[in-house]
Amino acid sequence: MVAKKRNQLRTKAALRLGQPKDTQTSDATIPLQLPEDPKAYLHQARESKKDKLLSKSQSFLAKLQEKSSLNGAISKSALRRRKRKIRDQLKPRMEDLLVSLEEDGVKGATADSSDASDDENSSLSQVTPASGSTYAGVTRVTTLKTPTESGSVTLKKNQPSIRNQRGAKQLVQQESVRFQDVLQNKQFQQNPFAALKEVIKMQKN
User: What span, in angstroms and rounded, lies between the C-alpha atoms of 82 and 172?
Assistant: First the structure.
């Protein structure tokens, strides 16, 4: 037997169904639109661990290079020193003040006043001898006491300091003894305010 062609069989089947042959072939050529495959990402190329490490190291080195290029490879301590130096330069200095005083002529005025004060001191220190007398000039030295402000107490040297532990202990002992003496004083018992005033005056002197 001779094998029948497949085309003839398709035409016969199409005639039985009542459809022409052209419509069947046109339907077969229409592409089908299928949804995306959910497992398609599994077939994509993945980044290996070595590639990840290389990318991280390269990004870290790039950041370091940016920082070094911005700061000029200067340490933090050096930057602090530079800023401190700039601040010190901005502060007013005594040399600049002297220069400004010299320009204003204040220095000349102070020199004149100092010369006048020297002349007055020399005139006071030297005494002109009287007529017929043979003694030389006598220098007179006067000591001036600086006035103490009201309520202030002159501090004496070689006293225990309250800043260290030993001095604080000695001061506490002294104050406790002084407090007991004041309480036992008859003058303080009669008029306490007058006694306190006298003690303050004695401490000033």
Answer: 49
The secondary structure of residue 18, as a DSSP letter, is T
**193, 199, 203, 205: CA torsion to nearest 10:** 100
The whole-angstrom separation of Cα 50 and Cα 131 is 117
Picking from 33, 12, 29, 30, the residue whose alpha carbon sits closest to that of residue 21 is: 12
Angle between helices 94-104 and 106-125 (to 10 degrees): 80
**What letter would DSSP give residue 42?**
G
Q: pTM of the full predicted structure?
A: 0.23
pLDDT per residue as tens digits for the range 164-183: 888 888 888 888 888 888 78
Percentages of the chain per state (helix, strand, coil), in multiples of 5: 65, 0, 35
